[in-house]
From TrEMBL:
Pfam families recorded: Peptidase_M23, Phage_lysozyme2, Prophage_tail
InterPro entries: Cell_wall_metabolism_enzyme (IPR050570), Dup_hybrid_motif (IPR011055), M23ase_b-sheet_dom (IPR016047), Phage_lysozyme2 (IPR041219), Phage_tail_spike_N (IPR007119), Tail_dom (IPR010572)
Database matches in NCBIfam families: put_anti_recept (TIGR01665)
The Phage tail lysozyme domain, residue ranges: 651-798
Organism: Lactococcus lactis subsp. lactis
Alphabetical keyword list: Hydrolase
Residues of the Tail spike domain: 96-339
Protein name: Putative metalloendopeptidase
Enzyme class: hydrolase
């Protein structure tokens, strides 16, 4: 009984069965007649349907050792009549085809060394088990699969089997075993015609030979060989235990019984059917005779295939004897196929000659010529030998008198069994081992090869060496071989012209009228028949100089230098020593949405300069006040939730509301409150030194570290630089100063809290945010863990409270209202640059909807061309609480300066005047008529619930 396992696609065991649970389980192993193919090994299995294994990928069979299995990959699975049937093939052949050997070239190395080297180079997880062959290997394995490599080794005289070991539920070892010959030589003898030996097929072949002329290694002639070794001087006598009689002076060996049966009739007697067999590696006459006899024993008899059921499942490859008494001969043959039925235990073995498939035409692999009878062709043995030498010299040609040319046949090249010329080799020396450069002509065209002198010693070394085709038979010329000289002409016309830069870091390419700098990409052979062949030529683009055209007229209108993201475009000044320094540069972080450039060195600009955006000098923003700005301080409408009643809580609420309005997360806002409590209990007039220099002042205790001025004076000086014009002793002014001071030098990221000010504003962990403010903004001598506790307390107190709306303002257009662009920083829809959007854009589906006054007030600007021109037709209303509301881009203004208006009164119509991308109402709140900085704009959402 056999143990059979099913495994999933990860080769993990799913379920185990005994063979008696199967309806069918037939394992077929066959040694192929062609040594260049590995053993055929298949499995057919059927058992009652089982849901757990219906998606299995592998089947493992064990009928021998405890842990060693044959593993099969399932090719097809059928679920019919409540039976689950699978067809599978030995997984090793399939798996090994996917491991690639890059370049292994053993020379006179043992089989075990070569196989282990191949396994290592291919990254294969297989290991070598048994390795019997002791012969050496000299070959080349260049970008070939592990499967093909084993096939090549098998052709050198070996055979392979494959198995796995399973421990627990997984494969723990994959084993390749290498034998001189699978199986063992047994004493088992079958009599031809006995009942246990069933004749499956018999073929009396027409190419039977009854005598063989053996020829061994020849003497050297140039780089080839001339007269070959013979066994004429060796004598065999059956009386001395030899299988046949062969007298001295006779250069062939004959099976007289076979000549009597199959010979050539001539003058009342049968002449032997002769042919010649050549063994290039045999240098001893006695060995030559024995090898010639071995071949004759096979090729002098009819081909017969037998079946028997008395051999075991492990008999594959075993050698047995077949005795044919009526013809007085016997021979040894192998079990070439074993079919094992694991359900009923029956084993059917096929032995003898494999006459299935293409093996019917199998012929003597070592036969170099097929001379049926030397006598009938009126040719003496001496004549045939001299002709053979002459042919050898013609085929080779290379040598002291032959020039450096070698005519190579298919046998020598290892591509066929034919002696017909396959290719012609030209070399730069008189012999292969004295040559370094080779030119090859064959049916692929003309190619060139190169090696170190002495590296290649045989013509097969040359054939297997790496080559580059220079000229194919269809006329295609490889331009890589143009290494020097001048191409005389006035035009090179094509799709791509490529020039390689120094050290192959980059390449310059002319393609489709554009000149580009690209990352270097090695290009060898290009298949121009592929529609995407240019991918094999182009590398990643770094920069490009292109022509531009007018999309309407379809005519060229200019040119452009293109920089690609992640790279630098630069105009440099040469240093005179091979290096350079930039004068103008587009940096690598420049993008389409946010383009950047840098200028280096002194320079002069003549003419007016129109800057659309912010302008900074040494980090200080230059605006209408000539100073920096706070970047916005968050809006607050002066209103408190009903839960906030004490003066202390109101101070903290104002900071909370302004922080939320400025874009802080609620956790980061709480961090400001925890630190404000630790510094001053959120008191904007807290003065720790009573006006003395070197002490802190205000909510966050601004301190002149130089000790030159008091905290309040130092704070007011900072406010002047920041453009903060509010009362300095208020939370509003000090919050605006915080928003300017932090990103303008006070906030310094530490290794413990490596956050920028902008990143701090978005932190969502209260402890992290509180301690980041302590370390990066306050930077005290001692730590303050208590501020995290206070921040958590303020967070818990305010987190669920709603920020009250202004209450006295209404939306400037009727419902339904959509906010098409929010208040704050955005990418300009006009310029594409980053800009501070100081209002909120509103639409309602009616492009000419009436614009309404948001609250009672007095019109202080109406379509005034002297106001900022980017508002188009613009109306500003001043309200009783000191706030101003603005309404931009109107198509019509219906009010005049000085006119008093009521809440909800129509003041104009929606439009798209001024810089605008479509009809909308740009609506904004200001605490100054001409705001001096972004801090004086307020978010409309703080006053109206949209």
């Amino acid at each position: 009984m056999s143990n059979i396992l099913f495994l999933d696609k990860m080769q993990q065991v799913i379920k185990s069965y005994d063979s008696n649970e199967f309806m069918e389980c037939v394992q077929t192993k066959e040694i192929t007649t062609n040594a260049s193919e590995l053993m055929n090994d298949t499995l057919s299995a059927s058992l009652p349907f089982d849901e757990t294994i219906k998606d299995a990928s592998y089947i493992a069979v064990n009928d021998t050792k405890e842990q060693e299995f044959s593993l099969y990959r399932i090719l097809t699975t059928k679920d019919e009549d409540n039976l689950l049937s699978s067809e599978a093939i030995n997984f090793a052949v399939d798996e090994l085809d996917n491991f690639i050997i890059k370049d292994i070239r053993p020379k006179n190395r043992s089989f075990s060394y070569v196989i282990n080297q191949l396994l290592s180079d291919s990254g294969c997880d297989w290991v070598l088990g048994v390795c019997e062959p002791i012969k050496t290997v000299s070959s080349t394995f260049y970008y070939t699969s592990m499967r093909e490599a084993l096939k090549a080794l098998q052709e050198l005289g070996s055979e392979f089997t494959f198995s796995i070991e399973i421990t627990g539920n997984k494969i723990t070892k994959k084993i390749i075993n290498c034998y001189n010959q699978i199986g063992k030589i047994t004493n088992k003898r079958f009599e031809y015609g006995e009942e246990v030996l069933k004749i499956v097929h018999q073929q009396d072949r027409t190419n039977i030979v009854t005598a063989l002329i053996g020829r061994g290694k020849g003497e050297e002639v140039g780089d080839g060989y001339g007269r070959r070794l013979e066994f004429s001087d060796v004598e065999w006598k059956k009386s001395n235990g030899k299988p046949l009689d062969k007298p001295k002076g006779q250069n062939w060996i004959e099976y007289p019984e076979m000549t009597k049966e199959y010979g050539i009739p001539s003058n009342g007697k049968m002449l032997p059917r002769k042919t010649v067999v050549v063994f290039d590696d045999v240098e001893d006459a006695s060995e030559l005779l024995q090898k010639t006899y071995d071949q004759l024993a096979y090729y002098c008899r009819p081909l017969v295939q037998f079946n028997t059921e008395i051999l075991g499942s492990d008999s594959i490859g075993n050698t047995v004897s077949i005795h044919r008494g009526e013809r007085n001969y016997h021979y040894q043959t192998r079990v070439f196929k074993v079919v094992t039925d694991h359900v009923n235990g029956r084993v059917q073995a096929s032995l003898g000659d494999n006459l299935s498939g293409n093996s019917l035409n199998r012929q003597l692999s070592q036969v170099q010529s097929n001379i049926s009878d030397l006598d009938s062709n009126k040719m003496t043995w001496y004549d045939s030998t001299e002709i053979g030498k002459y042919q050898d010299d013609i085929m080779r040609g290379a040598g002291a008198n032959g020039g450096s040319i070698y005519m190579v046949n298919g046998l020598e090249a290892g591509v066929s069994q034919s002696r017909e010329t396959y290719e012609q080799v030209f070399m730069d020396g008189p012999k292969i081992q004295d040559s370094q450069y080779f030119m090859i002509q064959n049916n692929a065209g003309i190619s060139f090869k190169q090696c170190k002198k002495g590296q290649w010693t045989t013509i097969k070394d040359v054939h297997n060496g790496a080559s580059t085709t220079a000229w194919t038979l269809d006329g295609t010329f490889n331009a890589s071989f143009i290494a020097a000289g001048i191409l005389a002409g006035v035009l090179i016309q094509g799709v791509v012209v490529k020039s390689i830069g120094s050290n192959s870091f980059f390449q310059s390419v002319l393609s489709n009228g554009a000149f580009s700098i690209e990352q270097y990409k090695e290009t060898n052979n290009v298949d121009y028949t592929k529609p995407d062949w240019q991918k094999d030529v182009h590398g990643g683009k770094v920069g490009e100089f292109i022509g531009t055209y007018d999309g309407n007229t379809k005519k060229a209108n200019g040119s452009a230098l293109i920089n690609y993201p992640g790279y630098i475009l630069s105009i440099n000044q040469d240093s005179g020593n091979g290096s350079s320094t930039p004068v103008f540069q587009v940096p690598s972080d420049s993008t389409f949405d946010k383009p950047k450039f840098k200028l280096f060195g002194d320079g002069t600009l003549q003419g007016d300069i129109n800057i659309k955006g912010n302008f900074y000098v040494n980090g200080v923003k230059i605006d209408t006040n000539g100073g920096g700005n706070s970047g916005g301080g968050g809006g607050w409408n002066g209103k408190y939730p009903p839960e906030v009643t004490s003066d202390r809580d109101k101070r903290y609420w104002q900071i909370w509301a302004m922080a939320i309005g400025a874009g802080f997360s609620k956790q980061a806002a709480a961090a400001l409150l925890g630190n404000a409590q630790g510094e001053s209990d959120a008191n904007p007039t807290a003065d720790e030194g009573g006006g003395r220099p070197g002490f802190g002042y205000g909510v966050w205790q601004w301190t002149d570290s130089s000790g030159a001025s008091s905290g309040r004076v130092y704070m007011i000086n900072l406010m002047t630089r920041a453009g903060v014009t509010d009362d300095p002793d208020t939370i509003t002014a000090q919050f605006k100063l915080l928003m300017w001071h932090a990103p303008n030098g006070q906030w310094i990221a530490t290794s413990s809290y490596p956050y920028s000010w902008t990143q701090f504003m978005t932190l969502t962990d209260i402890n992290t945010a509180a301690q980041a403010f302590v370390s990066n903004f306050e930077r005290p001598l001692n730590s303050h863990p208590e501020r995290s506790t206070w921040a958590q307390e303020w967070y818990d107190k305010f987190v669920n409270l709603e920020i009250p709306s202004g209450g006295s303002y209404i939306a400037p257009i009727s419902s339904p209202i959509t906010v098409s662009s929010e208040f704050g920083w955005r990418t300009s829809p006009i310029t594409g640059a980053q800009e501070f959007h100081n209002g909120i854009d509103l639409v309602n589906g009616n492009p000419n909807t009436p614009i309404l006054a948001s609250a009672d007030g007095t019109v202080v600007s109406a379509a005034d061309p002297g106001y900022f021109d980017w508002y188009g037709n613009w109306t500003v209303i001043k309200h009783a609480d000191g706030m101003y509301t603005g309404y931009a881009h109107q198509s019509r203004v219906d009010v005049a300066v000085g006119q008093n208006v009521k809440q909800g009164q129509q003041i104009g119509l929606m439009g798209t005047t001024g810089p605008s991308t479509g009809e909308h109402c740009h609506f904004q709140f200001m605490d100054e008529f001409y705001p001096s900085s972004n801090a004086h704009f307020h978010n409309a959402r703080d006053y109206i619930n949209f």
